[in-house]
Amino acid sequence: xxxxxxxxxxLAGRCPNCGEGPLFxxxxxxxxxxxxxxxxxxxxxxxxxxxxxxxxxAGFPCVFGALFTQFAFDPPxxxxxxxxxxxxxxxxxxxxxxxxxxxxxxxxxxxASEARRDGQD
Length: 121
Known about the structure:
This is DUF983 domain-containing protein. Keywords: Membrane, Transmembrane, Transmembrane helix. Pfam families: DUF983 (PF06170). It comes from Phenylobacterium glaciei. By secondary structure, the protein is mostly helical. It has one domain. 53% of the residues lie in helices and 0% in strands. It contains 3 helices and no strands. The two termini are 25 Å apart. The model has no long low-confidence stretch (mean pLDDT 90).
């Protein structure tokens, strides 16, 4: 680790190796290589991890808030949809990229890409 925190670099969408180059080439598409240090980012795979964290971090408070609002104030359903649907979308899209970056950086920090699945050393 070159004087920077790879998890903070991932959270910012930067290369976990150098903290300088962009981690993503699209909204969620991981870049092939770091533009700054040339680190191979293509081997990183976060799988479904970011989605699980988004469901937990955005879904629970939004669903709880919507249910609480519905039972406490009994507004028309359109009011609930106008308030809570945009909030769910904003939180989901807002959290997806940083959480994917953190999980990719955690793989880098723990050298998870060096693990083999075929049982060979």
